[in-house]
Amino acid sequence: MDNANKYLGMWVTKDGYIRHELLPNGRYDEARGNKKSAYQGSYIITGDHIDYKDDTGFTADGDFRDDILYHAGMVLYREQ
To answer: InterPro entries per the record (predicted)?
Structure first.
């Protein structure tokens, strides 16, 4: 995880509905609406690319560009 520290923390959609927390142990926790921990799993960051694998085996990916995370058709911003 070369860039992991650079991207750690909370990433949220503009409306705040979806929230991805990238944890320092290579795990993530995704909340949706009022449902905390809707999805959990692991991630690997290579350069500015992230690969997710949730605990059910589902995989997805995304890219960080200009401090914005583009993931599965969603746009997430770093929470301030």
So the answer is: Atu4866-like_sf (IPR038646), Uncharacterised_Atu4866 (IPR020955)
Residue 61 is part of a domain; what is its CATH number? Answer: 2.40.128.290
Each residue's pLDDT tens digit, 14-59: 999 999 999 999 999 999 999 999 999 999 999 999 999 999 999 9
Structural domains in the chain (count): 1
- 65: nearest Cα among 79, 78, 53: 78
Compute φ and ψ for 37, nearest 5 degrees: 55, 45
Contacts of 60 (CB under 8 A, 6+ apart): 51, 52, 54, 71, 72
